[in-house]
Amino acid sequence: MDAPTAVLFDFSGTLFHVESAAEAVRAALGVEHLHRAPDLARWGAINGSGVPDGLPEAMRDVWERRDLSAAAHRAAYSGMARHAGLSEEQAHALYERGVAAEAWSPYPDTVPVLRRLRQRGVPVAVVSNIGWNPRPVLAHHGVADLIDVLVLSDERGVLKPDPAIFRLALDELGVAAGGTVMVGDNEVNDGGATALGLRFVLVPEDPAQRAPDALLRAAGL
Predict the structure, then answer these.
(1) Is 182 helix (H, G, I), strand (E, B) or coil?
(2) What does the alpha-carbon distance between residue 141 and residue 162 come to, in Å, rounded to a whole number?
(3) Fewer C-beta within 10 Å: the chain N or C terminus?
(4) Quick count: other Cβ atoms within 10 Å of Cβ 50?
(5) One-character DSSP codes across the chain
(6) How far apart are CA 182 and CA 76, in angstroms?
(7) What are the boundaries of each domain within the chain?
(8) If we measure between CA atoms, which residue out of 164, 117, 97, 94 comes closest to residue 15?
């Protein structure tokens, strides 16, 4: 694979992964609530949860808009936490844990790939469907200065796989689609970059299923 002239990365499930539901519940609510972790994850009450099992009709609109504004994101996850039986105070604590820098960890080659791309002068953007500010996570792990552009859905009003969000990244990096690679864990959302002619590389979200050099390989390093 030829080395790319620029690299776009997804954030969650690609560069960083969130702690488990059990870890989130332990940190936010205490060990006495650990038994509730599976149901809270199933109901979409924890940041990073999938589509809730049996999404209430009253929550459908805000859930679908959760990555278009910080307010909608908080309302969606906190609302599902309340639906799962948490108090307002507990739902607030669980939400705050999910967006805390300490709840997120880099994959083994996240820091190395960003450092090596910077050393080689390859521009980097993060393109993410997200409803909260990941900058504290990037700063906490010492990589904020290694990313040239952040294109976040809640700040730009557009979601992957819409080609417009990838176009924003290309334009702000000042690069062409040809020679640029998009690396992500979602074949549909991240794969939307191919509509503009970018090369797409899929990486597994589950750390246990991912090779320790997956990002380095994806970036041609």
Answers:
(1) strand
(2) 29
(3) N
(4) 8
(5) -PPPSEEEE-SBTTTEEEPPHHHHHHHHH-GGGGGGHHHHHHTT-STT--S-TT--HHHHHHHHTTTS-HHHHHHHHHHHHHHTT--HHHHHHHHHHHTSGGGEEE-TTHHHHHHHHHHTT--EEEEE--SS--HHHHHHTT-GGG-SEEEEHHHHT--TTSHHHHHHHHHHHT--STTEEEEES-TTTGGGGGGGT-EEEE--SSGGGS-TTHHHHHTT-
(6) 28
(7) 6-17+104-218, 19-102
(8) 117
The pTM is what? 0.95
First-last CA distance in the chain: 9
Main-chain dihedrals φ then ψ at residue 150, nearest 5 degrees: -110, 120
pLDDT in tens, 162-221: 999 999 999 999 999 999 999 999 999 999 999 999 999 999 999 999 999 999 999 998
Domain 6-17+104-218 bears CATH identifier 3.40.630.30: no
What is the CB neighbour count within 10 angstroms for residue 128? Answer: 28
Q: Say which residues have a Cβ less than 8 Å from residue 73's Cβ, sequence separation at least 6.
A: 66, 67, 130, 131, 132, 154
